[in-house]
């Protein structure tokens, strides 16, 4: 049996993961990551880190395994929080959960675990791992969780082979209902605890309050863009190059009319509906684009607005990541995969075209709200093959 360090978050999933490892006969050590000290932006009635830490400690005690809290707040601020501020200020929308897995759980935390002599690190993610040997080479495959409604493979799409080699996902074959049933049978304090919706290992955070720590409110105009005419649509789609299919919409103030004010373009993301606080339109307003340099938000009526639809996306060369390096495309090559561009989104078919400057992805059917800064992950059946940061 192996020595396994489990990231015990104070939730039901990692609690049951730890139990299953104990049942298998492993030597299990529980570590709780403290990633944030500023409690001014944590909503105290919704799972602050202190409560999570106490719950994790009680679970470890119940399971009879060693427990300790490790402080990774400095690394978290540098690798996650500072990155988030930089991305939002540039008008992009980062995904801190994907980054937390890549930079904290399976990097800094993994290093701490290895210092304790661990053979593996385990988490409560709903995903699975399979290891095979092909042509004498060991390959680790990241697969979707058995519970399709809880599958979290997307959040792990930036892991590499070295990180995956040390990872265990004990609950990947279970349904969420089964996990809660196991926790209830064991009498764990986390059995009925609701799932956290906050930032990774911080707790429930008010994102506007969080962003306003460094990104000060700044009044600006909201400009409404009318839907394109049929002729404009035809002209926009007349190009046949990859670039023409994925190029973003470029709005100018003279293209629309001012319909209201906002408190900072860097607080908003493409496809966002709530937060504009502007009424009186026949259809709901959606954010079509932001200009953080001019501090302008461009909005349009209806979720089917032409500017929310895109035929594809582009990932710069330096941001293309192959979890399966044997599947890497060379310039001039193409491949068919399925993709998602946000968590829990159903997979949709795409064609990947690798060029020298990066990866062009063309959708079989147009997709809504393709958001720069988010991650696109491509799959083959239920296996994550690669991912990358959406540039446009």
Polypeptide structure, described:
The chain has 392 residues and is of the alpha/beta class. It folds into three domains: 3-211, Rossmann fold, CATH 3.40.50; 220-305, no CATH class; 309-389, Elongation Factor Tu (Ef-tu), domain 3, CATH 2.40.30. 25% of the residues lie in helices and 29% in strands. It has nine helices and 18 strands. Strands 5, 6, 12, 13, 14, 15, 16, 17 and 18 form a nine-stranded antiparallel sheet that branches. It has a five-stranded parallel sheet with strand order 3-2-1-4-7, sandwiched between helices. Strands 9-8-11-10 form a four-stranded mixed sheet, with no helix packed on it. β15 (348-355) and β16 (358-368) form a beta hairpin. The chain is globular and about 65 Å long. The protein starts with a strand and ends with a strand. The mean pLDDT is 90.
List the helices and strands and how they pair.
Elements: E1 3-7, H1 12-23, E2 27-34, H2 49-63, E3 67-71, H3 73-89, H4 96-115, E4 120-122, E5 127-134, E6 137-144, H5 161-165, E7 167-168, H6 176-186, H7 207-211, E8 220-224, H8 230-236, H9 242-246, E9 257-262, E10 285-291, E11 296-301, E12 309-316, E13 320-322, E14 334-340, E15 348-355, E16 358-368, E17 375-380, E18 383-389
Parallel strand pairs: 1-2, 1-4, 2-3, 4-7, 8-11
Antiparallel strand pairs: 5-6, 6-18, 8-9, 10-11, 12-16, 13-18, 14-15, 14-17, 15-16, 17-18
Helix pairs in contact: 1-2, 1-6, 3-4
What structural class is derived from the secondary structure elements? alpha/beta
| Average pLDDT reading | 90
Total number of strands: 18
CATH class of the largest domain: Alpha Beta
Low-pLDDT runs of 5+ residues are: none
The fourth-level CATH homologous superfamily of the largest domain is HUPs
Tally of DSSP helical segments:
9
- Number of discrete domains: 3
What kind of sheet is the major sheet?
Answer: 9 strands, antiparallel
What percent of residues are in strands? Answer: 25-35%
| Gyration radius, rounded | 22 Å
Shape call:
globular
CATH architecture label of the largest domain:
3-Layer(aba) Sandwich
Order of helices and strands: EHEHEHHEEEHEHHEHHEEEEEEEEEE
Helix content: 10-25%
CATH topology of the largest domain: Rossmann fold
Distance between the termini: 47 Å
């Amino acid at each position: 049996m192996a020595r396994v360090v489990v990231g015990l978050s104070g939730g039901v999933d990692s609690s049951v993961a730890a139990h299953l490892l104990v049942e298998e006969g492993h030597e299990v050590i529980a570590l709780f990551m403290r990633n944030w000290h500023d409690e001014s932006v944590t909503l105290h009635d919704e799972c602050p880190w202190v409560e999570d830490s106490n719950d994790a400690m009680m679970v470890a005690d119940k399971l009879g395994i060693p427990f300790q809290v490790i402080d990774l707040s400095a690394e978290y601020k540098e690798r996650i929080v500072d990155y988030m501020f930089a991305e939002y200020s540039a008008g992009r929308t980062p995904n801190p959960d994907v980054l937390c897995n890549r930079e904290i759980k399976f990097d800094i935390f993994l290093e701490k675990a290895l210092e304790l002599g661990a053979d593996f690190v385990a988490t409560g993610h709903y995903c699975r791992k399979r290891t095979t040997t092909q042509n004498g080479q060991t390959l680790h495959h990241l697969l979707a969780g058995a519970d399709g409604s809880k599958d979290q493979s997307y959040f792990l799409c930036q892991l590499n082979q070295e990180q995956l080699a040390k990872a265990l996902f004990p609950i990947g074959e279970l349904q969420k209902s089964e996990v809660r049933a196991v926790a209830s049978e064991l009498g764990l304090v986390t059995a009925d605890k609701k799932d956290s919706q906050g930032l990774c290992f911080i707790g429930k955070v008010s994102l506007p309050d969080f962003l306003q720590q460094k990104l000060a409110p700044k009044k600006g105009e909201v400009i409404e863009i009318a839907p394109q005419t049929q002729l404009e649509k035809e002209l926009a789609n007349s190009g046949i190059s990859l670039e023409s299919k994925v190029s973003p919409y470029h709005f100018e103030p003279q293209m629309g009319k001012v319909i209201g004010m906002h408190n900072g373009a860097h607080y908003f993301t493409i496809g966002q509906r709530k937060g504009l606080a502007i009424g009186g339109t026949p259809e709901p307003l959606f954010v079509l684009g932001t200009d953080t340099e001019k501090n302008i938000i461009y909005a349009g009526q209806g979720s089917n607005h032409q500017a929310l639809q895109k035929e594809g996306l582009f990932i710069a060369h330096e941001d293309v990541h192959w979890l399966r390096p044997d599947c890497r495309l060379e310039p001039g090559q193409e491949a068919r995969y399925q993709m998602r561009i946000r968590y829990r989104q159903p997979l949709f078919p795409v064609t990947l075209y690798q060029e020298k400057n990066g990866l062009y992805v063309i959708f079989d059917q147009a997709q809504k709200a393709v958001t720069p800064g988010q991650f696109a992950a491509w799959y083959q059946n239920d296996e994550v093959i690669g991912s990358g940061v959406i540039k446009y």
